[in-house]
């Protein structure tokens, strides 16, 4: 347990971007999913005067309907994060299955899956959501997550297919074939572990895209007006002219939440790229070596100064 803790500590010390990103995302997730611990109000209940400025009781103010902005930001984050993680999970699974199977098996399987991938790739997700919103009236957050997931996986699948084509010709894969390992075991034990960084990057990128797309659709009025999300908060603030009348807090709360999630996930994504990229990894190792070298030089310089001081003290006393 102690050894694992030291490894985690060393990892975050060597990857400050990952540490900052994980702290930001974890803080937001904990605030949103433990919302009852941080607020006692209902996000849809009228509990104060309209457009009340931030105060000790409502430190993010209230909306035009007299609802607490802090409470709406916490509860709205649940839905927005759910959309992002549902879409990201679907994209990662689809891209992994299609990309690995297409690149590893090749031949007719590759032709069929590549055709299917190219077919889905040309379907634009935003116009599709606009058409669905026209037919359905409004698009619920779950529908937005499904549409984003269905239309966004081909990009990751193409990258994973290319990586699989490169990996399947490596020596360790041929050695596994000679040893008689099954194709299923080679896929899950030999090929897939070498693409975890790509899968993680695809997942995080889709989560950011899904959260921002949902907020955009709801801001332009295509979301469900009854759901409390960061996008619907921006839409309601725009409809009530919050900025014009000076109720800036209605815009600031969801905007900071969206920006914080995007920044945190982007930092994690950058750190994954640094870990998986050999060139960036070598640069990080050299930077750590230089830091340790400078630390050793400072210690040596300090020790030499203490030795000189001790010699001067002995000469003075003699």
Written overview of the protein:
The protein is 77% helix and 0% strand. The chain is mainly alpha-helical and 318 residues long. It has two domains: 21-38 and 66-276, Orthogonal Bundle (MetI-like fold), CATH 1.10.3720.10; 279-318. The longest helix is centred in the C-terminal third of the chain and has 40 residues, at 278-317. It is flat.
Short descriptors:
318 residues, 0% strand, MetI-like fold, 77% helix, 2 domains, mainly alpha, 13 helices
Secondary structure layout plus pairing:
Blueprint: H1 2-14, H2 16-33, H3 35-38, H4 69-105, H5 107-121, H6 125-136, H7 141-167, H8 171-178, H9 183-191, H10 196-219, H11 230-239, H12 249-276, H13 278-317
Helix pairs in contact: 2-4, 2-12, 4-5, 4-7, 4-10, 4-11, 4-12, 5-7, 7-10, 8-9, 10-11, 10-12, 11-12, 12-13
Quick structural summary:
77% of the residues lie in helices and 0% in strands. By secondary structure, the protein is mainly alpha-helical. The protein folds into 2 domains: 21-38 and 66-276, MetI-like fold; 279-318.
């Amino acid at each position: 347990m102690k050894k694992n803790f030291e490894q985690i500590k060393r990892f975050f010390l060597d990857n400050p971007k990952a540490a900052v990103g994980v702290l930001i995302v974890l803080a937001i997730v904990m605030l949103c999913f433990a919302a009852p611990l941080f607020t006692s109000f209902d996000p849809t209940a009228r509990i104060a005067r309209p457009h009340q400025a931030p105060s000790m009781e409502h430190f993010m103010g209230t909306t035009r309907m007299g609802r607490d902005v802090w409470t709406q930001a916490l509860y709205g984050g649940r839905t927005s994060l759910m959309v992002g993680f549902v879409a990201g999970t679907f994209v990662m699974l689809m891209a992994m299955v299609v990309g690995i199977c297409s690149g590893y098996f090749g031949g007719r399987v590759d032709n069929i899956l590549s055709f299917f991938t190219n077919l889905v790739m040309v379907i634009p997700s935003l116009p599709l959501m606009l058409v669905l919103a026209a037919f359905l009236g409004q698009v619920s957050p779950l529908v937005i997550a499904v549409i984003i997931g269905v239309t966004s996986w081909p990009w990751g699948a193409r990258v994973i297919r290319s990586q699989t084509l490169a990996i399947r010709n490596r020596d360790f894969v041929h050695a596994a074939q000679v040893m008689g390992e099954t194709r299923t075991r080679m896929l899950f034990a030999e090929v897939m572990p070498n693409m975890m960084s790509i899968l993680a990057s695809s997942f995080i990128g889709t989560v950011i895209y899904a959260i921002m797309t949902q907020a955009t659709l709801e801001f332009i009025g295509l979301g469900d007006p009854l759901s409390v999300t960061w996008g619907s908060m921006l839409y309601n603030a725009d409809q009530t002219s919050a900025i014009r009348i000076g109720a800036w807090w209605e815009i600031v709360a969801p905007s900071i939440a969206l920006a914080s999630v995007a920044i945190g996930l982007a930092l994690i994504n950058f750190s994954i790229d640094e870990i998986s990229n050999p060139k960036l990894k070598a640069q990080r190792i050299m930077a750590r070596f230089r830091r340790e070298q400078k630390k050793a030089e400072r210690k040596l310089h300090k020790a030499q100064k203490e030795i000189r001081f001790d010699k001067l003290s002995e000469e003075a006393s003699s």
